[in-house]
Amino acid sequence: MIERFPLLFAPKRWDWAGVDGRFSVENPPAELVTKVHLVGFDGDRIVLCRDARPVWFLPGGSREPDESLTECAARELLEEAGAVLRGPLYVVGAHTCLSDRPGPYRPHHPHPEQAWLWCFADVAVEAAPLNPPGAEQVVEVRAVELAEARQLLLSDGAWFPELVELAVELRTAGTAPLL
User: Fold this and answer.
1) DSSP 98-131
2) 6 phi and psi angles, rounded to 5 deg
C-alpha cells in the first residue's frame, strides 16, 4: 500500500501545529485522537469545503472535552459543511503525531503523542456551514466527483488526493473497519 500511496505514507511536518506525523491504516487508541476528519460521500460525490485563502479541504477538526469520535465528526461536518451523517463512520487510517510544543493544543488533549483520525461516511449536505466564531470560516461547499476532488484538494497538500483515493477504494471494496 505504501508503494501505491507514497505521498500519503511519507513523514509529514505541520509547522502550524508543531507536530511531525506518519500515516498508518491502523486505528489508533481513541484516547490519543485529537482530530477527526471525514471523507464525506454524498452519493458518489465527495464533500469539500473552501475557506477564504482559498484552500479546499475535508471537513474535520479538534475534539471537544468528553466528545466521542463520532460526535466530533458529526459536529465538524455540520459546522464546516452544513452536512449530516447518513451512516456509520469507517476508518481510513490516522496520522500518529508527536508534538514539539511545551504543552497540548487544548488542555484535554493528550501530549506530546496524539493521532489525527481519517474516516469516511455517507453524508448529506442539508444547510449552509454554521461557521461558529473562532473556527475556520467556510465560504463554499461542493460535492464533487473523485477527479475534481483530487484536483481541488491539491490546494491543501500533495498527499490529499491519495487519501481520498484510498477512502474510495476502501468504500468500494467494503473492507474498511467500522469506527
Assistant:
1) EE-SSS-SSTTS--SEEEEEEEEEEEEE-S----
2) -65, -35
| pLDDT for 136 | 84
> Looking at the chain, which runs of residues are DSSP E strands?
12-14, 19-24, 33-42, 45-51, 56-57, 60-62, 83-85, 90-99, 113-125, 138-144
pLDDT 10s digits, 104-142? 999 999 999 999 999 999 999 999 999 999 888 999 999
CA–centroid distance for 84 within its chain: 15
Q: How far apart are CA 39 and CA 77, in angstroms?
A: 10
Spacing of C-alpha 54 from chain mean position: 18
* Grid cell locating 121: 461516511
Please, are residues 113 and 107 in contact by the beta-carbon 8 Å criterion? no
Kindly report the average pLDDT of the chain as a whole number. 97
172 HSE (CA, 13 A, CB side): 8
73, 153 contact by CB (below 8 A): no
Question: How is domain 6-173 classified at the CATH fold level?
Answer: Nucleoside Triphosphate Pyrophosphohydrolase (3.90.79)
Please, how many CA atoms are within 13 Å of residue 73, restricted to the half-sphere of its CB?
A: 26
| DSSP helix/strand/coil, 42 | strand
